[in-house]
From TrEMBL:
Source organism: Parnassius mnemosyne
Ranges of Gly residues composition bias in the record: 205-217
Pfam family membership, one: Integrase_H2C2
Enzyme class, first EC level, given as a word: transferase
Protein name: RNA-directed DNA polymerase
A single MF term (Gene Ontology): RNA-directed DNA polymerase activity
PANTHER family: PROTEIN CBG26694 (PTHR37984), PROTEIN NYNRIN-LIKE (PTHR37984:SF5)
InterPro entries: Integrase_H2C2 (IPR041588), Retrovirus_Pol_polyprotein (IPR050951)
Known EC number: 2.7.7.49
Location of the region described as Disordered in the Swiss-Prot/TrEMBL record: 197-217
Domain Integrase zinc-binding: 317-365
Length: 368
């Protein structure tokens, strides 16, 4: 006769008796051991005693004295050990433990909900079980964001499973934002030195913002990198130029396209192509209405490795703006978080309005 599974072993020092009995019961069912095949329950008693370690058997023997385990009915052995390992509990004490339970920072939402169910098992809540579980779950959360979102729900309609689903969604969103914050790069304006400047420095000249000793008040920007420390002709001799865009690519920061495609797109963009020319040369006195937003922030604009930048943000070409908005909206973080992430990475005129319009059409974002 084949046997399904293994006989569970019981160690009175480390194992939980209630769990062991449940495992033993399932072993009996799997192997067809019941009141028909084991009328006197002799087999079940033998399996129970055989699955005990010596300390556990010794404890059982002492509890049954003056009777021996082998002469005692199976039900009596189980009832005796039930009384020893699982004595009657004070319901008020168990409810006090339940009501003071809070989510541990190191446990997940699912683990927290499972722990609450375990604590509630001895509280005898009856028909109020669902309400008590939901209330304790919400009030014991360590996340202010998740708790605040659940506070806006109707307590008469909110159930534990729904509360758990919402809390898990907020927890997931917080992880995404946390990962974004940890990968945040703070740009410092690169200091570029040409070979001619290095030679001047070595011979006692000044190094830094002035090119060729004159005032930089009327100096033109370099058409390659956008800096004022030199002109385009010197760029052929530049060694190891620090590029912020290349730093972003090396760090794995997601861009809407490869760097080569991004460069090509800038030159094809009907708005950004003339802006890049104005940035690298000079701005005219008057520009078209479409270019006014760029003109207002012209002092913040520069060209880095063929990419138009505003401070530490990439000025996003027109063809990639919809994709950027979709990526920002994917996690349903709400309009405030979406703007925060956008301001760290990219910019284009009207991006705040586009984010607001997208969030206003999303029920999940509106609820945040």
């Amino acid at each position: 006769m084949s046997i399904y599974g293994k006989v569970p072993v019981f160690d009175c020092k480390t194992d939980e008796w209630v769990v062991h009995v449940a495992q033993l019961y399932n072993f009996f069912i799997a192997n067809g051991i019941d009141d028909i095949t084991d009328v006197q329950r002799v087999r079940r008693r033998a399996i129970l005693l055989n699955g005990m370690l010596q300390d556990s058997y010794r404890l059982t023997r002492d509890l049954l004295y003056p009777n021996t385990p082998e002469s005692t009915y199976y039900k009596v052995i189980v009832a005796t050990l039930d009384g020893h390992f699982d004595p009657k509990k004070c319901i008020y004490d168990e409810r006090q433990k339940f009501c003071s339970a809070k989510k541990d920072p190191h446990e997940s939402m699912v683990e927290y909900a499972a722990r609450l169910r375990g604590l509630a098992s001895a509280c005898c809540f009856g028909t109020a079980l669902e309400m008590c579980l939901t209330d304790r779950f919400v009030l014991g959360l360590d996340s202010a964001s998740a708790r605040g979102k659940l506070f806006r729900e109707d307590p008469n309609q909110l159930k534990l499973n729904k509360a758990l689903e919402v809390a898990c969604a907020v927890e997931s969103a917080q992880r995404i934002v946390s990962a974004s914050d940890s990968a945040e790069l703070i740009k410092s304006e690169p200091v570029l030195y040409t070979n001619s400047q290095r030679k001047a420095t070595a011979s006692g000249g000044t190094r830094g913002g002035r090119a060729r000793g004159g005032s930089d008040g009327g100096a033109l920007r370099c058409s390659v990198c956008g800096a004022r420390s030199h002109d385009t002709s010197d760029m052929a001799d530049v060694d190891d130029v620090t590029s912020y865009v290349n730093t972003l690519v090396a760090a794995g920061v997601p861009l809407p396209a490869s760097l080569d495609k991004l460069r090509a797109t800038f030159h094809k963009d009907k708005f950004l192509s003339p802006v890049m020319q104005y940035v690298t040369k000079s701005w005219p006195r008057k520009v078209s209405s479409e270019l006014l937003p760029y003109n207002r922030c012209q002092r913040e604009l520069y060209v880095d490795s063929g990419v138009l930048m505003r401070g530490h943000k990439i000025v996003m070409p027109t063809v990639y703006r919809a994709a950027v908005l979709q990526e920002l909206h994917a996690a349903h973080l709400g309009v405030i978080k979406m703007k925060m992430i956008a301001r760290e990475r990219c910019w284009y005129p009207g991006i705040d309005s586009d984010i607001e319009n997208m969030a206003s059409n999303c029920g999940r974002c509106i609820s945040l």
